[in-house]
Design goal:
The protein is of the alpha+beta class. The chain has one domain: Peptide Methionine Sulfoxide Reductase, Chain A. Helices cover 36% and strands 17% of the residues. The chain contains nine helices and eight strands. The strands form two sheets. It has a six-stranded mixed sheet, with helices on one face. Strands 4-5 form a two-stranded antiparallel sheet. The relative contact order is 0.24.
Length: 222
């Protein structure tokens, strides 16, 4: 993603419209994919899942509008605590992915349902180590299951989508283990909600939230 300094420079240079003018990049690969054939039995009232799929602003922005989601936190997964800082992660050398921790009520939304939304509107699973205008391993499409059940469902769903040839290219989304989840800096939290007119948000992330409301009206919450 472009940091605040990058955006300011573009605006001052009069280049913002050029830099954010690609509607294909903006909307991403929005496609309503089939539901998972495998779902987890409901157990308890809270469950946690971690998703990485490009800039965490948009990932958090989408899941924050899913009915049954209790909270979302932008952060870093896949690397160590020592390097879990935005400027360091942005080098693409730490092993981290920009990720979002989603706490949800499984009585209202199943992990498999969140995966369907993820593959439909959050990420393009055919892009390797990038999403839209953002390049680097920190923007990879990856799932970090938090329970054995989530691992089983994630792997089964990836296989299901691959067999069905839902996407034009091969799915490169990986199921990974994370040594921990490290909360991102305060200014990244709920960035989309707090900055709805930020150029990057308008072009790249708002279409994803609009697609959620359009494709999954039963899962939408304001």
């Amino acid at each position: 993603m472009f940091g605040p300094k990058s955006i300011a420079a573009l605006l001052l240079a009069g280049g913002a419209l050029v830099a954010f003018s690609n509607p294909g990049v903006a909307a991403g690969a929005v496609k309503q994919v089939p539901a998972s054939a495998l779902k987890a039995p409901v157990a308890g009232t809270r469950e946690t899942a971690i998703f990485a799929g490009g800039c965490f602003w948009g990932v958090q922005g989408v899941f924050a509008h899913v009915k049954g989601v209790v909270s979302t936190t932008a952060g870093y997964a896949g690397g160590s605590a020592a390097t879990a800082h935005y400027e360091t992660v942005s080098t693409g050398t730490t092993g981290h992915a920009e990720a979002v921790k989603v706490v949800f009520d499984p009585r209202q939304v199943n992990y498999a349902d969140l995966l369907r939304i993820y593959f439909s509107v959050v990420t393009d699973p055919t892009e390797l180590n990038r999403q839209g205008p953002d390049e680097g391993t920190q923007y990879r499409s990856a799932l970090f299951p938090q329970t054995p059940g989530q691992v089983r469902i994630a792997r089964a769903y990836l296989a299901q989508l691959s067999r069905a040839h839902v996407f034009a290219g091969p799915i490169v989304t990986r199921v990974e283990r994370a040594p921990g989840f490290y909360q991102a800096e305060t200014y990244h939290q709920a960035f989309m909600a707090r900055n709805p007119n930020y150029p990057y948000i308008v072009i790249n992330d708002r279409p994803k939230v609009e697609a959620l409301r359009r494709l999954f009206p039963g899962s939408w919450k304001a």
